[in-house]
Design brief:
58 strands; mainly beta; 7 helices; Cytochrome Bc1 Complex, Chain D, domain 2; Immunoglobulin-like; 10-stranded mixed sheet; Neuraminidase; single chain; globular
Length: about 900
């Protein structure tokens, strides 16, 4: 037996050990983990989910998913199957005063499981009653993969209007005391600004009747404590003590427009949620611009709506009778004097905002981006919340809020200071692009689950899915890249398979194995990294590279090869420079196409109409790589390839489909309505940038995209208007083109020249497409963008905010593969000042090496003061046709090696 002293010693040692373990538990990996350690795994199959909106992960890994139309589904991680366990009768529509029936946001909007689910098997649902105008919070018993018949108990119900749309909320969460939080939307008309219409018969347009009403549950986050008998009690600490006249004691926070996905920090007890704001794109006399919010409540409070938005910007109180806008409310003492208010007139002071962002770029929170917005929220990570997790996340994310936006598709890891104040954010897993993430939470296994609503609003989307993001703290699979030196050809076809780009993030030794298969052909194995392969029989082959690391982890990638049909050869010849465009100066072009089976343009075997040729201006920041990789058929002309890339990088598909009816009109419908109407087509480009409403009688306003240039918006509209064309009219295969940068563009974009041809195939062998793209850049090139900067460093330029290269003796900057054909002059922007102790020097222009042929030079003497504008110095350039690496070498024989000779900003190439 142990003595009392021994027990005390053991206890003390145990406590120290626990403390040490706890410290290591939280601080085992303070560095940011490499993105390769996170893997999104899709759990559900296409078509299995229909408007999913909330979910819960059970302790055994099964996942309950609610769908707006009323279904509750269960994902089984063992069978990997989804089945419907119940379908609740719910209302999904609203009926206007004129009798028009329209799809609404109502339905089964929320689902959660009791914290003691493993013991009591209780789940809770929040839904719109099928026939009566009311919301229902009910409790069920869930056993044997089914809701127990007759087990539903109504916990809470309250009235709703179904005259107009929108905003339902519906998210639920729990705190450590097993108090239930329920987010409830404002159930009010969705306007560009706030909704405060007090005219008779317009109460559904007045948020003062609900959101700002202390005696209503609309526009609130409620906090109740469910009891075992199906009733509930009011926990301590809500906004209004029980018994306070003209108030509802269930209210924890109020002043919300459409609060989503509340989460409680288990360590601090702080409440977090997303709140979706109105659609005003700019500040005006009658309204501030709209903001979405990601909010934090450290205690009960009033969060401003409908009197304040975003950075607590006040709304002028609009008088709907006379059309006049009066002063806004006092945030320290807001008053609700609406005729529709049944609660207290004096409201609590407005709580401070946490994170807020408009359609346009946010100067306060620049990482959130611009365009459509729909803040969701998400969980706060604490490893101790899931002590049995088999894949716990690293300590880097301890205490951070993982929040998402449905429209923008990012996940932000938001850091707070020790007192809870906002500290910063960074995008989590930027390579993962969820399609309208609508709910997100951690499971007991430690993984982050993301529910993707899909791209079709109020309808079933094949791309709706449940995703599990797994963290791997140990050995990672190799990253595999597979390619071939040619995509196909006639038989016998000799090709070389390549594993170039394959790597192992852990630095393990790798084994390579290629398997080449085709129907009717015996598979062949090549146990080397880059085998030479000969295919003697025509057909479609799949070459699969499997790479295995030294721990046995494997990964694979495949490449398709077409044997029996030679790919076309497509080239574009330019009469002038192939690196730069020169505004207003024409150039000639000529497309040549040849195909072993089809013939050529020159022979007449291929007609010009079969070749897609186009030249398109793209604004600054466009992703050229996606267009260069696109291998479509004849409609892959540059203007439409560019448009598809712009659409893919924006949020257009959140609301629009090509043919199907979504929340917004289809591209086909838009084309049919506006084709041939130049005025309307130009208006559509401005609608993309500034937002729009009222032209299609749809329930959702089209958001603004101020980050898209007017030129790019016109490119998108041109594609949409022509989407119904069976024959795309392209440019001639030979001609002249004059670059003219759009007047409303900054001119820093590029011209894409693209020719594509799809051959006719060869009997049963598939067709092949070859596309050639030339990118002509602006002739002004900034020195700091050089891929190689030697014996120099960069520094922000005080003249215009760009970056200079600070040059040292015999240092240089190098630009690779520049066409110098027809270049007669260069202007170099640089300066040296006595104030910055720059002795000055000469910039020599060499080709192919730092000591290669000298083709020009410019001297820069020391100035007394920094020039007010860029100091351009012109140099003639020797006739040097062809593609070369160019070196701008810094010289001053009298300078010391440490001296900063001058500040080099830019090069302007001239014909």
């Amino acid at each position: 037996m142990f003595s009392k002293t021994s027990i005390l010693k053991i206890s003390a040692i145990a406590l120290l050990s626990i403390a040490a373990v706890s410290y290591a538990f939280i601080n085992d990996d303070p560095k940011k983990p490499d993105e390769s350690r996170f893997t999104p795994v899709t759990l559900t199959r296409p078509g299995e989910l229909d408007e999913p909106n909330t979910f819960e992960v059970l302790s055994d890994g099964r996942v309950l998913i609610s769908e707006r139309k009323g279904a509750i589904k269960l994902f089984d991680p063992i069978t990997k199957m989804v089945k419907t366990i119940a379908t609740l009768p719910v209302n999904t529509k609203y009926t206007s005063a004129t009798g028009k029936v329209t799809e609404a946001e109502e339905g089964l909007m929320g689902l959660t499981v009791d914290p003691d689910f493993d013991k009591n098997h209780f789940i809770y649902t929040f839904y719109a009653h099928a026939t009566e105008k009311k919301w229902m919070l009910t409790r069920w018993k869930f056993e044997d993969d089914a809701l127990v018949k007759g087990s539903e108990k109504t916990i809470l119900e309250f009235a709703t209007q179904r005259e107009i749309c929108c905003h339902t909320g519906g998210g639920m969460t729990w705190d450590a005391k097993h108090d239930l939080y329920l987010a409830v939307g404002n159930n009010t008309a969705a306007l560009l600004s706030s909704s405060t219409d007090e005219r008779p018969g317009k109460s559904s347009w007045d948020d003062q009747r609900g959101t700002a009403n202390t005696n209503s549950l609309l526009g609130k986050i409620l906090k109740i404590h469910p009891e075992a008998d199906g009733s509930y009690t009011i926990p301590a600490g809500n906004l209004f003590p029980k018994g306070t006249p003209l108030t509802r004691p269930e209210i924890y926070t109020m002043g919300h427009r459409n609060p989503w996905r509340p989460s409680v920090d288990s360590k601090t007890g702080f409440l977090y949620w997303g709140d979706i704001g109105p659609d005003a794109t700019e500040d005006s006399e009658i309204s501030p611009k709209g903001y979405d919010e990601l909010n934090q409540a450290r205690k009960p409070g009033f969060f401003g709506w409908p009197y304040f938005v975003g950075p607590n910007a006040p709304y002028p109180i609009f008088n709907y009778e006379d059309g006049e806008a009066g002063p806004g409310k006092d945030p320290k003492k807001p008053m609700n004097n609406s005729v529709n208010n049944t609660g207290l007139k004096e409201l609590p002071a407005v709580a401070p905002p946490f994170i807020y962002y408009p359609y346009s770029a946010s100067p306060e929170f620049p990482l959130v981006g611009s365009g459509s917005r729909c803040s969701v929220g998400g969980p706060i990570y604490h490893r101790s919340d899931r002590p049995l997790a088999k894949r716990p996340w690293p300590a880097y994310y301890e205490g951070k809020w993982l929040a998402t936006d449905l429209a923008r598709g990012w996940i932000m890891a938001i850091s707070m200071k020790l007192n809870g104040d906002y500290e910063g954010m960074e995008q989590f897993l930027p390579s993962y692009h969820p399609i309208e993430p609508i709910d997100m939470k951690f499971g007991p296994d430690g993984d982050l689950y993301v529910l993707e609503y899909g791209s079709v609003w109020f309808g079933k989307s094949d791309n709706a899915k449940l995703v599990r993001i797994e963290y791997n703290s140990g050995n990672r699979k190799p990253v595999v890249m597979a390619s071939t030196n040619k995509q196909g050809g006639t038989v016998p076809l000799k090709i070389t398979l390549s594993s170039a780009g394959t790597y192992d993030a852990d630095g393990d030794a790798l084994k390579y194995s290629w398997k080449v298969t085709s129907p009717g052909v015996a598979p062949k194995i090549y146990p080397v990294a880059n085998p030479a392969v000969t295919m003697t029989k025509a057909g479609v082959y799949m070459a699969t590279l499997t790479v295995t690391d030294s721990h046995g982890a494997k990964n694979s990638k495949s490449v398709k090869i077409i044997a029996g049909n030679e790919a076309p050869q497509v080239a574009v010849d330019l009469s002038s420079n192939s690196s730069f465009y020169f505004n207003g100066k024409p150039f000639d072009y000529n497309v040549t196409v040849s195909d072993k089976e089809d013939g050529s343009l020159a022979s007449g075997g291929i007609t010009p109409a079969q070749v897609s040729m186009s030249i398109n201006y793209t604004s600054e920041g466009f992703d050229y790589v996606q267009v260069a990789q696109e291998q479509s058929s004849v409609d892959a002309s540059t203007q439409f390839a560019v448009a598809r890339t712009l659409i893919g990088n924006a949020d257009c598909k959140n609301c629009h489909s090509i043919n199907a009816v979504n929340v917004a009109p289809s591209f086909t419908d838009i084309s049919n309505k506006y084709k041939g109407n130049a005025v309307e087509i130009e208006r559509l480009a401005h609608v993309i940038r500034g937002g729009g409403r009222g032209h299609w009688n749809r329930p959702v306003d089209m958001p603004a995209h101020p980050g898209i240039t007017l030129n790019d918006a016109r490119t998108i509209v041109n594609y949409i208007i022509n989407i119904t064309n069976n024959n795309i009219n392209t440019m001639p295969v030979k001609g002249s083109f004059t670059p003219n940068v759009p007047a409303d563009d900054n001119g820093n974009g590029s011209y894409l020249i693209r020719a594509a041809y799809t051959d006719k195939g060869n009997k049963n062998i598939p067709k092949q497409t070859t596309a050639t793209t030339i990118i002509l850049h602006n002739p002004v090139v900034y020195a700091a963008t050089a891929p190689v900067i030697k014996n120099a460093f960069t520094k922000v330029n005080g003249l215009d905010g760009s970056t200079n290269v600070v040059a040292r003796k015999d240092g240089y900057v190098e630009f690779k593969k520049i066409d110098l054909t027809a270049i007669k002059h260069m202007e170099l922007a640089a300066y040296a000042t006595a104030l910055e102790n720059n002795p000055g020097g000469t910039i020599e222009v060499h080709i192919d090496s730092p000591t290669g042929t000298l083709i020009g030079s410019a001297a820069f003497e020391q100035l007394e003061a920094k020039p007010k504008n860029q100091n351009w110095t012109k140099t003639d350039v020797k006739d040097t046709p062809g593609i070369h690496d160019i070196y701008f070498v810094f010289k001053n024989d009298k300078a010391k090696p440490i001296d900063a000779l001058l500040l080099f900003n830019a090069i302007k190439f001239e014909l």
